[in-house]
Amino acid sequence: MATTLKDIAKKLGISEATVSLALNNNSLVNEKTKKRVHEAAKELKYFPNMVAKGLATNKSNTIGIIVPDINIVFYANILRAIDEVVNRAGYSLLAAMSNNDPQIEEEIIRTFISKRIEGVLAVPTNKPTKFLTSYQKALREYNIPLVYITSLYTIDEIRYVMGDIREGTYMLIKHLTDLGHRNIVFIGGNRTVPTTSLRREGYSRALGEKGIPVFAENLIECEDIHYDQAALVTEELIGRRRDFTAICAMNDEMALGVINTLQKAGIRVPEDVSVVGYDNTIFSKLSMVGITSMDSDIEGTCQQAVDMLLQVVRGEIPEEPHIMTKPAMIKRQSSGPVKETEN
Asked: Signal peptide position in this chain (predicted)?
């Protein structure tokens, strides 16, 4: 039979009300009594009924997070980091996966609302969506704050914490142009989604500074940002042409797909074609050729996102609702100078 407040009170010879106040660390109870109550609760294996507590207080002490796909290492790393930060702050984490589907994302939000989630962290899908107005309105109606993390939807009144992917991509492309590359392919997702469009802006800026034109044929869109998709578009690319000297992939997993496909076709990396990725995940180190990548400081980004969300949960106004964390380039063997025979 489950231990109750009455059992703890009986053991210690105090009232149930005092036990309840002590377990909630109320200032009305002295520290000595709080310690005795917590020790007795642990000894008797008392577990509070969080559902009942949530109904009574209309709070769940739980933060919800949505990620597009935990099979992508970057998102799995975010989930791990957020879980650590949320738990340190004394909250529980409820995680859900949208399968990169905006409609599922909306359904998850509605489920979170029904569970009295106190705040939501969302990694947006990599696809265009028409559902934003609907679930944004629902969250506002229930006074549940939302913070986007690692990306954003381009709508009004949003809060976000993300790496500066535009600047990071600019730095990667500048690294390649400084090595003499002029014909650089960019492989990303849908051009209308910020995670791709911001990177394209960084790509165009770096080329423009060198007076290099941006050719549409060098901007490749993928339906999904996975290894297989990158391998497929690379195979199609080298079937059409081989005049490019460098490829910038949207993430390290895609960069690995690019490298393996190039090598399978007898194209050496970086001797024939340089390749760069993004996020500095395990893929950048697993590759036979270490991948030059951009570290986006996942831990720092997650800490700032949780801090911002909890500020709003407490009724405070964040000093800065839009935060861009600075990326750092990690140079490895996959990028090198353009071949002397190339123009």
From this structure: none
Q: H helices of 58-131, where? A: 73-88, 102-114
Q: Which one, of 258, 189, 180, 254, lies nearest residue 219 by Cα?
A: 189
pLDDT in tens, 176-228: 999 999 999 999 999 988 889 999 999 999 999 999 999 999 999 998 889 99
pLDDT of residue 58: 57
pLDDT > 90: percent of the chain: 62
Q: In Å, what is the CA distance from 71 to each residue of 99, 113, 127, 162, 189?
A: 10, 26, 17, 20, 17
What is the CATH T-level fold of the domain 5-48, as seen in this structure? 434 Repressor (Amino-terminal Domain) (1.10.260)
- How buried is 49 (Cβ within 10 angstroms: 0-12 exposed, 13-18 middle, 19+ buried)? exposed
What is the 8-class DSSP label of residue 233? H
Fold of 165-295: Rossmann fold (3.40.50)
Instruction: Determine the Cα–Cα distance for residues 283 and 291; give it in Å rounded to an integer.
Output: 8
CATH 3.40.50.2300 fits 61-163+297-326, yes or no: yes
This prediction's pTM: 0.80
**Is there a shared CATH topology between the 5-48 domain and the 165-295 domain?**
no
